[in-house]
Fold this sequence. Notes:
By secondary structure, the chain is of the alpha+beta class. The chain has one domain (4-58): Alpha-Beta Plaits (2-Layer Sandwich), CATH 3.30.70. The chain is built from 2 helices and 4 strands. It has a two-stranded antiparallel sheet with strand order 1-4. β2 (24-26) and β3 form a beta hairpin. The N and C termini lie close together (6 Å).
Amino acid sequence: MAVKVDKEICIGCGACVSLCPDVFRIGSDGKSEAYNPKGCKKCDCQAATDNCPVHAISL
């Protein structure tokens, strides 16, 4: 699995960070980034993808 955030459409709401903090963080530009794009075993990256209001996350 590889996690990717489309920064062109990300609005920086932080939902993905709340759901999967071991994979996502808010970058200096105020938008989400996948700092651990390989994912992790502790959180639910699919839930983060499903809850993105602008569908900026892909797996």
